[in-house]
Amino acid sequence: MKLGNEFDRYRHEHDKGVRAKISWLLKLPKFWNSPLSKEVIRIVDPQKGENVLDIGAGMGPASVEAASRGAHVVAIDPSRFMRAVLGFRRQFQKNPGLITIEAGVAERIPLPEGSTDVVCAVNAIHHWTDLEGSIEEIARVISPGGRVLLVDEDFTDPKHPKHETHHDHEDEMTKVDVEVIKRLFEGLGFESKGEKVSLSGVPVKLVEANSQ
User: Fold this and answer.
1) Rounded to the nearest 10 degrees, what angle do helices 18-26 and 80-90 cross at?
2) Across 128-136, average pLDDT
3) Pick the CATH number of 4-210 from 3.40.720.10, 1.10.357.10, 3.40.50.150, 3.40.190.10
4) Closest by CA position to 38, among listed 2, 20, 62
5) How far, in Å, CA of 55 to CA of 101, rounded?
6) Are 42 and 34 in contact (CB under 8 A)?
7) What pLDDT, on a 0 to 100 scale, did the predictor assign at position 161?
8) 55-95 pLDDT, tens per residue?
9) Which ranges in 48-190 belong to alpha helices (H)?
10) Domain ranges, ordered by start, for the chain
């Protein structure tokens, strides 16, 4: 999939340009090993041999964690820079062949119908430009009995450590309303729940869905 300049649709203003890339490199230790991503994988519990889709994989903390369990992971991200970082990281994994990296977004997932057992996304929902279309795409690629876990940090919660600086984080992009997302999944025949909880010590907006 070629995204080209269309990638700008999926980014905050502060994520654009050379300075943004330098900033991401400075933040590398945080996004390389994410306790939140590890917790998401623990909850969704991918098994050896299962197919996992990591949407908005970034530097790949969730992808690496899922692959360490023996799952086959397809990591998609619209950012060439992020895919390059993950590609570098993949070289040092015990089973690098378990991680496939693709250009992609939630609105256009580059996978065939019913090919995925597990779908996860961490801090990615607010980047989606077509929420309904994204949920329909997830429903298209998930296999019968498959499971979905979508998590975004809730910077609007005053208890979040970054509330002061990030409380308007979603204003540039897509509002993450767990009830709306839950209903979208239910409308497609999924069992689903949406809630605001704490994971890895931070408030999050969480949606779980199970394919029938």
Assistant:
1) 30
2) 97
3) 3.40.50.150
4) 62
5) 11
6) no
7) 78
8) 999 999 999 999 999 999 999 999 998 999 999 999 999 99
9) 61-68, 80-90, 131-141, 163-166, 178-187
10) 4-210
